[in-house]
Amino acid sequence: MGEAQGFAYAQRADGSVVITHHGRVAGTLRGGRAAEFLAEVDGDPQLVMARWTGNYRRGNERAARQHPRNRA
């Protein structure tokens, strides 16, 4: 299973955190969410940033939803 790559984050002076993916803003966290993110990012930062931005899905969700087993 491949790891997420290309994520970076910057903490601003006002306490907010900006997460970028390949140089483009992927999300901005403020207040308690920013503090929670900073406490969690120590482990595997790429995976944590992918999860916090929602970029851990890879595009096969639509095909899976249409599979006969997953239809209602």
UniProtKB/TrEMBL annotation:
- What's the name of the protein? Hydrophilic protein
Q: What is the lineage of its organism?
A: Bacteria, Bacillati, Actinomycetota, Actinomycetes, Micromonosporales
